[in-house]
From TrEMBL:
<dbReference type="GO" id="GO:0003755">
    <property type="term" value="F:peptidyl-prolyl cis-trans isomerase activity"/>
</dbReference>
<keyword id="KW-0413">Isomerase</keyword>
<dbReference type="Pfam" id="PF00254">
    <property type="entry name" value="FKBP_C"/>
</dbReference>
<dbReference type="InterPro" id="IPR046357">
    <property type="entry name" value="PPIase_dom_sf"/>
</dbReference>
<protein>
    <recommendedName>
        <fullName>Peptidyl-prolyl cis-trans isomerase</fullName>
        <ecNumber>5.2.1.8</ecNumber>
    </recommendedName>
</protein>
<keyword id="KW-0697">Rotamase</keyword>
<comment type="similarity">
    <text>Belongs to the FKBP-type PPIase family.</text>
</comment>
<dbReference type="InterPro" id="IPR001179">
    <property type="entry name" value="PPIase_FKBP_dom"/>
</dbReference>
<feature type="domain" description="PPIase FKBP-type">
    <location>
        <begin position="66"/>
        <end position="149"/>
    </location>
</feature>
Length: 149
């Protein structure tokens, strides 16, 4: 009896467990497609759900997800509020140490390339508040890939 009660309690906890990321997937998709429509963007959607625009593909080296890159960027929410921004000289970092949306998205450009990454929460900071970013947020990044190291 004691084990049956524990099993029942465990099953109940699992069934009640929310999966916020799944909840945000369809919400983020609608938010991003609405943003694209309102801003008249020509965006491409990847298999992962990342949307991106290429204003200038660039002409130099093209990074892989294992590359270290130097990128100038501006990060904002769908409402245009900027939450982070680099200088024009950019910052240097390994693509394996950033959010999934960047690890994937930066590889669509070559050195000198510019564009926009529209990152759903499952490729950003997820369903929970992180470093001042509200959980479930779609993040918009204007990027300029300066160099691949």
């Amino acid at each position: 009896m004691k084990y049956s009660l524990l099993a029942l309690l465990f099953a109940f906890m699992i069934s009640c467990k929310s999966t916020p990321e799944k909840d945000y997937a369809s919400i983020n998709e609608k938010q991003i497609t609405n943003y694209i429509k309102i801003n008249k963007l020509d965006a491409t959607k990847s298999e992962s759900g990342l949307y991106y625009t290429v204003d200038n593909a660039g002409e130099g080296a093209q990074p892989t997800s294992a590359s270290t890159v130097q990128v100038a960027y501006r990060g904002s929410y769908l409402n245009g509020e900027v939450f982070d921004e680099s200088s024009e000289r950019g910052i240097s970092f390994p693509l394996k140490r950033v959010i999934k949306g960047w690890t994937e998205g930066i590889t669509y450009f070559k050195e000198g390339g510019k564009g926009k990454l529209l990152v759903p929460s499952h490729l950003g900071y997820g369903p929970y508040d992180t470093r001042g970013i509200p959980g479930g947020s779609v993040l918009i990044f204007d990027i300029h890939l300066i160099s691949v190291k």
